[in-house]
Amino acid sequence: MNVIVVKNAAEGGKKGAEIFMTAWQNGAKVYGLATGSTPLTTYAELCSSAIDFRKCTSVNLDEYVGLGPDDEQSYAYFMQKHLFNQKPFAHSYIPNGLAPDLAKEVAHYDQIIADHPVDLQILGIGRNGHIGFNEPGTPFDSTTHEVQLTQSTIDANSRFFANEADVPRSALSMGMASIMQAHQILLEAYGDAKADAIAKAIEGPVTEDVPASILQRHPNVTIIIDEAAAQKLHGQY
Ligand SMILES: O=P(O)(O)OC[C@H]1O[C@](O)(CO)[C@@H](O)[C@@H]1O
After folding, report:
1. 206-236: buried (b, 16+ CB within 10 Å) or exposed (e) per residue?
2. Cβ–Cβ contacts within 10 Å for residue 48, how many?
3. Mutate to test the pocket of ligand 1, among 130, 148, 194, 215 (most ligand atoms within 8 A of CB)
4. β-pairing, 62-64 with 2-6?
5. Could you tell me the fold of the domain covering 2-174+213-230?
6. Angle formed by the axes of helices 9-25 and 40-47, to 10°?
7. Which of 15, 144, 185, 193 is the most exposed place for a label (fewest CB within 10 A)?
8. Whose CA is nearest to atom 15 of ligand 1?
9. Which pLDDT score, from 0 to 100, does residue 237 have?
10. How do the domains of the chain map onto residue ranges?
């Protein structure tokens, strides 16, 4: 793991965008994308850069069940607003949270991932160590699946909704095995609230109780964290 400690999310976004730019210059065609507040500075840097995704494909990690692309809280809406409007891709895939048959949608999304192996995957991390919406306890061999969100994730994400009751209780998420298939992974984390999860993910045992700890087994991972998120690490980075 290549761990980079930066001053703040603004500096992290610049480093994150540099990693995208290098991958793109080296011919990366498929980008695994994430939502949440963490990737925002990287996306903002990409939007003002010369990167051109018009011959590339994006595959997003997850989507809430019950929310469609017109819903401002949906991840489809988020991606449009923060990246795709400024930097369109040839094809962008996001799980369909409105699919009438979720089992069929899950199989369909697995096929999309199989058809478009991810060159560079960006990840945030939940306070409980989740990646995508893979909550603690998710099997490491999981592929796309429907997830019942934990109360910790519902609470954390309620800041984006008018009230907690509006937060969907389930989501569709790429699985752990799907994420690990990416050729290169970039995880970013900022702020005190991520310090425990970061310490466990980088220096703790590899365990399904801390989904992000699986990244210790991936050969090409960069982790960008600010000093607040790094405060519980023991090693020198
Ligand atoms: O970046 P945030 O908003 O702290 O969220 C962290 C993680 O939680 C999720 O938003 C899901 O709850 C992920 O998509 C994200 O990586």
Report:
1. eebebbbbbbeebeebbbbbbebbbebbeee
2. 10
3. 130
4. unpaired
5. Rossmann fold (3.40.50)
6. 60
7. 193
8. 124
9. 86
10. 2-174+213-230
How many whole angstroms from 56 Cα to the centroid of ligand 1?
24
Q: What is the pLDDT of residue 198?
A: 98
Residue 35 Cβ inside 6 Å of ligand 1? The answer reads yes
Which among 203, 189, 190, 140 has a CA at the least distance from the CA of 1? 203
Q: How far apart are CA 30 and CA 27, in angstroms?
A: 9
In tens, the pLDDT along 71-84 reads 999 999 999 999 99
| Active site annotation includes 116 | no
62 tagged catalytic: yes
Per-residue pLDDT of the chain (237 residues; tens, 9 = 90+): 999 999 999 999 999 999 999 999 999 999 999 999 999 999 999 999 999 999 999 999 999 999 999 999 999 999 999 999 999 999 999 999 999 999 999 999 999 999 999 999 999 999 999 999 999 999 999 999 999 999 988 998 999 899 999 999 999 999 999 999 999 999 999 999 999 999 999 999 999 999 999 999 999 999 999 999 999 999 888
Of these residues, 45, 60, 62, 63, which one is catalytic?
Answer: 62
Q: Is the CB of 38 under 6 A from ligand 1?
A: yes
Residue to substitute in 41, 42, 125 for testing ligand 1 pocket (most ligand atoms within 8 angstroms of CB): 125
Q: Name the closest-CA residue to atom 5, ligand 1.
A: 36
